[in-house]
UniProtKB/TrEMBL annotation:
Residues 78-128 form the ABC transporter domain. GO terms for cellular component: membrane. It is a multi-pass membrane protein. The keyword Nucleotide-binding applies. Belongs to the ABC transporter superfamily. ABCC family. Conjugate transporter (TC 3.A.1.208) subfamily. Keywords: ATP-binding, Nucleotide-binding. GO terms for molecular function: ATP binding; ATP hydrolysis activity; ATPase-coupled transmembrane transporter activity. It comes from Medioppia subpectinata. It comes from the Eukaryota. The lineage of its organism: Eukaryota, Metazoa, Ecdysozoa, Arthropoda, Chelicerata. Pfam families: ABC_tran. It is found in: Membrane. This is ABC transporter domain-containing protein.
Length: 143
């Protein structure tokens, strides 16, 4: 015959096991998928060739100049570009999809290689992409 103490302990044990398996294991599996994705991206980044730094020159008028093309394409991505931004100026880069906005910004940051032309940056450059970071989870977990 089953005593009340044994029945209570058994039910409590199975309830804890049910919560662990029913709630935490699916969360762990979802997190594992994200972790594998992050590890792959980090590995790709860490295996990239070391890039030379920007040719930084301090001066009174911290301007940027850029012209060039991407070495992987047969047709130039950026052509006949001359850009001069004075200190304190706000610059908006706008255009249709595929017009070269990202290529322009990435070339200023020395993130893409140039076949010809040059990038001259006097002073420091900062870039903050507007990509959303949302995890595959609830709104509460993303906050």
């Amino acid at each position: 015959m089953l005593s009340a103490e044994t029945a209570f302990a058994t039910v409590a044990y199975f309830n804890a096991l049910r919560i662990t398996i029913g709630h935490n294991v699916p969360l762990a599996v979802a997190a594992l998928g994200e972790i594998i994705s992050v590890i792959n991206r980090m590995q790709d980044f860490l295996l990239l060739e070391e890039m030379s730094g920007l040719d930084e020159r301090e001066g009174k008028d911290n301007e940027a100049f850029i012209s060039g093309e991407n070495e992987e394409t047969t047709e130039p991505t950026l052509r006949d570009i001359s850009l001069s931004v004075k200190p304190g100026e706000l610059l908006a880069v706008v255009g249709s999809v595929g017009s070269g906005k990202s290529s322009l910004l990435m070339s200023i940051l020395n993130e893409i290689s140039l076949v010809s032309g040059r990038v001259v940056v006097r002073g420091r450059v900062s870039y903050a992409p507007q990509e959303s970071w949302a995890f595959i989870a609830s709104v509460r977990q993303n906050i």
